[in-house]
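Researcher: We're reviewing a set of sequences before deciding which ones to prioritize for further study. For each one, I'd like a predicted 3D structure that I can look through quickly. This is FAD:protein FMN transferase. If possible, include the structure in token form so it fits the rest of the review sheet.
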Amino acid sequence: MTSEEEKRTSRRNFLRGKLASPPDTEAVEGASNEATSAETRPDGAYLVQLARQAMACQFEVYLNAAGPGTEAEGAVAALDLVNDLEQQLSAYRPESEICQLARTAYLGPVVVEPRLFQLLELSLQLHRDTHGAFDITAGPLTKVWGFFDREGKVPQEDDLVEAMRLVGSNQIELDSDKRTLRLAKEGVELNLGSIGKGYALDRCQEVLLDWDVEDFLIHGGTSSVLAHGERRDGARQDGWEVGVPDPLRPDRRIGTVYLKNESLGTSGAAFQAFFHQGKKYGHVLDPRSGRPSTKVLSSTVISPTAALADALATACYVMGPEETEAFLESYPNVSVLLVVEGKRRGSVETIMLGGMSERLLRV
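Model: Here's the predicted structure for FAD:protein FMN transferase, in token form for your review sheet.
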């Protein structure tokens, strides 16, 4: 039996309850860090949930099923892929392909894995289309502001200027014929944190569809969501219901949307921030100024792919209402919800662009 056949057999036994270890044990081969549950709906339908910790958050897959079976096996295979992608994309792992590229590509062109190269091409295209609001070279800014180590601080001006010298996707050179990457100077970093989770969801979708799973919802840390097919529970049959939280009160919803064969991404800085001399500094940085963006409280994007939704949620947060509205002229298949501070203290107001007013169902 090949290693892949052994892994599938282990998954099958695990999902059918044939292993002695409980579902959430780390000892189960092929299902480490896995949690499985089934929620019974009043009409008798089941919602099967599988979860795994990866990329500093919890990835979860939801399935329509009468009980665990081959569909759940496909979900485990998808979650296996997330672990592999984290090893490739993480800026926090020195041995990852992204970190290795940053260490060597300034010396000369380096060949890049095909799917990663496509992701880099998309990232550069979005950098151009957002006029620099989306930038995968902003890692030095994240570090100088202390957010990389989750210890926020206001940087010295000289340190900020030095970090800005290394920021700018124009310092990335891609050769599509040779599939190589070259960096303009030593110290330029590649950080895919604002697009990586969405990309992982898109890749998970490919795995699930290969397993002939047609109806599922998968998310990474709830801020990146991809839905395919429908939730079959006797309610409305036009996709999966996803809540949009209030950025100031996460226990409350601004509204809900229904997703079908599309994705949603949300960006906000309300709970990843620090105070200095009475001023609040959020972790979403404007790579054009080097400073935290303050135009909106949160940005939610619906788009055809999760990578695009993930990236544009960050970009629209940075751009704010006017720039986002202009940007959407070139992206007619994208809808955006921006949440800004209301006139009354503690209240919020919503700005809906690109057809979002037709998608959002208010609470």
